[in-house]
Amino acid sequence: MKTSIHARCVPTVCALLVVFAALPVAAADYADVIIHGGTVYDGSGKPGRVADVAIRGDRIIAIGNLSGRTAAKKIDATGLAVSPGFINMLSWATQSLILDPRSESDIRQGVTLEVMGEGDSMGPLNDTMKADELKHQGDYKFAIEWTTLGEYLAYLEKRKVATNVASFVGATTVRVHELGYENRAPTPAELARMQDLVRQAMSEGAMGVGSSLIYSPASYSTPAEIKALALAAAESGGGYISHMRSEGNRLLEGIDEVLDIARATKQHAEIYHFKVAGESNWPKVNDAIARVEAARAAGLDVSADMYTYTAGATGLDAANPPWVQEGGLDAWVARLKDPATRKRVIADMRNPKPSWENLLLAAGSPDRVLLIGFKTDRLKPLTGKTLAEIAKMRGTSPEETVLDLVAEDGYRVDTAYFLMSEDNVTRQLKLPWVSLGSDEESLAPEGVFLKHNPHPRAYGNFARFLGHYVREQKVATLEDAVRRLTALPAQNLRLKDRGRLAAGYYADVVVFDPDKIIDHATFDKPHQYATGVLQVFVNGQQVLKDGEHTGALPGRFVRGPGSK
Q: Residue 65 class from Cβ within 10 Å (0-12 exposed, 13-18 middle, 19+ buried)?
C-alpha cells in the first residue's frame, strides 16, 4: 500500500508544503490596492456601475465584485465616482514640471497625463536655440540638459514627476531650428531637414506635429509647409494638432486648413482650444461646428479640445503685427524703441491687415485685456491690472501702453484676453468630439509660481468642467464627460492601455465626488486648488490621498505611435 506524502512528512514540512501549494492561487487573487464600492465610469461612455477595482503593480487586474480578494490596501469609495485618469490635451507644464515635479494643480483635478507641444516643444534644439532660451529666462531658471524632444521627456521621467508626460513636436520649433526667425519660406533642402526632424521626434515617441499659427514666426509658414511636416509625422501614425491661423475673423478658413491636412495625411487632426473669438464673430459658431461635423460624417478623423472659460491667455505679441516681431524677441523689442517704427506699428494695430488678427481689437476694449505676468521686478506690481487701468495710470493710449510694456519688460508680457461668449462655451462643451485642455502650466500656490498670475484654468479647468458645466449646467452626462476626459483623447493619441478602466490597462485611476467637485480659482485669486478629487493613482502608485499629495512621483514618458 502506498503512503501519501502528507502521511509521511513531519509537521513543519507539511505546513510548508501546504503554503507552497497555495501560492499560485493566492498570487492570482492578491492585489496591492482594491478600491471598493465606488461607481465605476470606465471611460467607455456607458453608465456607471458599482464595482471594485483591483490594482497590482502598475496595472488594473480586475473590476467587479472583488469581496473575496485580499489586498495590502483597501480604499472605500462608496458614494464616489471611480474613473480613468484625466488627459490634459493642451498642457504647458513643460517648465513648471522641471521646477516642481509634483504637478499639484493638475493632480488635484485628476489629471494623470500632460500632453505638450502647442507649436513650441522642448526639442529639437540647436546651440543657438539653447542660448536664446537661457538668455531670456525670467522667473523660471533651469539648465537645459537635453537636445531632442525625446531626450527632454526622458529627462522628466528620470528626474521623476507625478504625472505621465507626452508631447507633439512643435512645427514652430522645427522651423526655428532650420530658419531662425526669418520671414521666408524654407528652401527644398531646409524643408527636407525639417521633415527629418519630425521623423526623428516621431521615432523618439512624439504624438505627431503641433502648430500655433497666429504667432510669429509660425505665422510666416505657408499651409504647404505645415502640411509637409504633418505628412512626415503621418508616415509613422502621428497626428496633427493646431492652434489655427485664425479663431476669429477667418475662423472658418482656419478650420478648412485643418481639414485639408486631415485629408492629406489620413491621420487624426485636432483643433486646439476650439473657440470663436471676438463678439462680431460669435455667430460663426454654428458654421464652425457644422464644418467639423460634416468632415467627421465624411470619414475624416477630426476632433477638438477646449478650456472652460471665456478668456484666453497668451501675450502682448498677439496684439502686435507679425512683421515687427521678425527676427525674434530682441529684434522686436529693439524696433519698438524706434519712433518711426512705433508709429507704423500703432497704425497697424488699429487697422490690421486681413492676414493677422489683433486680439486687443478682438477683445473689444482695453478693460477686457488683463496683464497677468511680467519678467522684470519693476513691472510686477502691475500684475492683475487691466490694460485700461495701466494706460490711464501712464496717460498713454492703449496701443502705446502695449508697446511700452513690451519694450520695458523685454518680454511678450503674459496677457488674458476676454474674447468668447458664455453661450458659445456652453454649447461647445456639449459636443461629443470635444475633449479638454488647460492650455496652462501645472502649479502650486508657493515659491516662484506666486510671482505671476496664471489663468485660473491652471487650477480649475477640469474641475470646472465636471462641477459647474456637467453637474450644474447639464452639458453632458457624467459618463460621457468622463469618456471625453479619458478614452476619447487616448483614442485620438493612439495610446495603448490607457484611457480606460479595464483589466490589463495601466492603473491611472481617479476617485472623485461628483456632487462636490468644483473649481475655486478666479482671475483675481488664481492660485486656489480645486476640490472634490480625493484619490489619484498614476501607474499604480497613489499620488493623491484624501485630497493631499503623497509626494509620489511615478509619472512616465508616454510614447507615441512611431516610437522605436
A: exposed
